UniProtKB/TrEMBL annotation:
Its EC number is 2.7.7.77. Transmembrane segments: none annotated. This is Molybdenum cofactor guanylyltransferase. Transfers a GMP moiety from GTP to Mo-molybdopterin (Mo-MPT) cofactor (Moco or molybdenum cofactor) to form Mo-molybdopterin guanine dinucleotide (Mo-MGD) cofactor. It is found in: Cytoplasm. GO terms for biological process: bis(molybdopterin guanine dinucleotide)molybdenum biosynthetic process. One of its GO terms (cellular component) is cytoplasm. GTP binds at residues 12-14, 24, 52, 68, 103. The N-terminal domain determines nucleotide recognition and specific binding, while the C-terminal domain determines the specific binding to the target protein. It holds the Pfam family NTP_transf_3. Its cofactor is Mg(2+). It is an enzyme of class 2 (transferase). It comes from Ciceribacter naphthalenivorans. PANTHER family: MOLYBDENUM COFACTOR GUANYLYLTRANSFERASE. The lineage of its organism: Bacteria, Pseudomonadati, Pseudomonadota, Alphaproteobacteria, Hyphomicrobiales.
Length: 209
């Protein structure tokens, strides 16, 4: 990787949180906003951390806001594009950007280490996977993709991350499930609903014992 250091990180929080019924990034999880837990997990793994959300997002005060560039084109790809442009302007000239969603509070502490280990060129997208499932929002993106992604978004109505990724070299790195007294925890467990929030609280409780 350029700079041979950790990549900058971007938390994607530009979604509508319809299933949660309120902004999920700032939803309290065991007494703390979920996004604080995610930021805490990521900070030691990245060179800098920013938040992608809509202009005016009030959920987090201590992260720089990177707004979507294509407000008429919703979807996480718009956040990735905004993040790639943001990262390209950073002083240490990173080669890649790490993205994670705002709803995965159990991110592995070796997430970046393992993804970066496979980022051996400037073109390959390195994705996280678990239990045989790829998580396309949890990925290392080469900064060199920015113009290509912008062109794709301008010329196609397809907003699926998987469709864009399928056009590029990509590799998925599998992360193990974790056995806990509350059951098996997927490190990329997604908190989308109030019920998921309750499940996540149970895991936090047993993991903190
Ligand atoms: N920048 C950006 N990110 C988005 C957008 N839509 C979804 N995301 C992000 O993509 C990730 C996955 O989103 P989902 O959980 O599928 O959707 P959501 O809108 O957050 O939640 P639901 O409305 O319940 O589907 C999350 O990190 C979202 O914040 C968008 O329009 N712009």
């Amino acid at each position: 990787m350029t700079g041979d250091g950790n990549p900058p990180g971007l938390i994607l929080a530009g979604g509508l949180s319809r299933r949660m019924g309120r902004d999920k990034a700032s939803a309290l999880l065991a007494g703390r906003p979920m996004i604080d837990r995610i930021a805490e997990r990521l900070r030691p793994q990245v060179s800098s951390l920013a938040l992608n959300a809509c202009e005016g997002f009030a959920g987090v005060r201590d992260l720089p806001l990177v707004p979507d560039l294509h407000m008429d084109r919703p979807g996480p790809l718009a956040g990735v594009l905004a993040g790639l442009r943001h990262a390209a302007a950073l002083p240490d000239a990173p080669g890649h950007l790490l993205t994670v969603p705002a709803d995965t509070p159990f991110l592995p502490t070796d997430l970046v280490l393992r993804l970066v280990g496979q980022a051996d060129d400037r073109t390959r997208i390195v994705l996280a996977s678990s239990a045989g499932q790829i998580h396309p929002v949890i990925a290392l993106w080469p900064l060199s993709l920015a113009d290509d992604l912008e062109g794709w978004m301008a010329s196609s109505d397809n907003r699926r991350l998987q469709s864009y990724i399928a056009r590029h070299p990509a590799i998925a790195i599998d992360f193990a499930l974790v056995d806990t007294p509350a059951g098996t925890l997927d490190p990329f467990f997604n908190v989308n609903t109030p019920e998921d929030l309750a499940t996540a609280e149970r895991f936090i409780e047993v993991l903190s014992r």
